[in-house]
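Progress narrative, Year 2. Work on Probable dual-specificity RNA methyltransferase RlmN from Paenibacillus eucommiae advanced from sequence curation to structure prediction during this period.
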Amino acid sequence: MKPFVYDLTLEEWQAWMKTNSEAAFRAGQVFDWLYVKRVLSFEEMTNLPKGLRDKLAEQFEFVTLHEIAKYKSQDGTVKFLFELSDKNAIETVIMKHSYGNSICVTTQVGCRVGCTFCASTLGGLKRDLTAGEIVAQVVKAQKLLDDEEERISSIVIMGIGEPFENYEATMNFLRIMIHPKGLNIGQRHITVSTSGIVPNIYKFADENLQVNLAISIHAPNDALRSKLMPVNRRFPFKDLIEACQYYTATTGRRITFEYALMGEVNDQPEHAEELAQVLKAMPLSHVNLIPVNYVAERDFKRTPRDDIFMFQRILERNKINATIRREQGSDIAAACGQLRAKHMKNK
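Result:
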């Protein structure tokens, strides 16, 4: 299979031009056609010599994202179910905020991490996406917004899959997104979320990026976290916290800890107190409390609203900064994995 045209960073395009005896400045022209003009064929790259366009067509493919379904929520959230060239399906979500448009992208077809409350893990991991298949989701969304004379202002890598198990593709995706000659998304407007792949948290800390890091934590101790998130058996809670401390010490940046509240599982006052004690060792941290999404194949129920506020108050009383995530797209199954799970079941 040919590589995708979106797989390459600008530096990799420059190297390709050199290898193929083309002028280095042609790399910038290709980048401009892909990410500023957002064309979908080599023939549209009219300032490139025909011989170069032919060469590109011989060696690269554009990513095929066939739109299986598109749903629009009452709150403006748009969710896509895309089919890839190999017939696998992925999800992408555009979220409307007062401060701009955010896109949530997928990094894998399925997920092997196995969180017991998440729809993304149903069916396991099929394969990693290439950097270009992740980039294509943003380009597709931006082309939709072009019609409304709007642009994507922020990116969250929180869709289907574990981005730190597809590390190199995720890093190339980031390099393409933040490049000033590309879509030029500000680094601090991008967030990567991981379930806690400890070795790659250390690697990410050393990347010298200003991209935000979020950690899915969901429990205050090893025993409960291992039940909810099997990844904790590979990378125990203590090791995860040490990696997070290294990250904040190295980058000076805050970590967001995501905590999905599940009724009578991890949402009791004693859980909040225990979590507060753990996070006192993490002064550069913030807790994002998330009411768990209903998944038909799972058995978890939502924490009552008053108990969510109580959990937040306990954390704040212990000097732990905590907010409650605003829900979006609940009427269109916008939480990651839900639409794909329904599609797989129907197939």
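The chain has twelve helices and twelve strands. The first strand starts at residue 66 and ends at 72.
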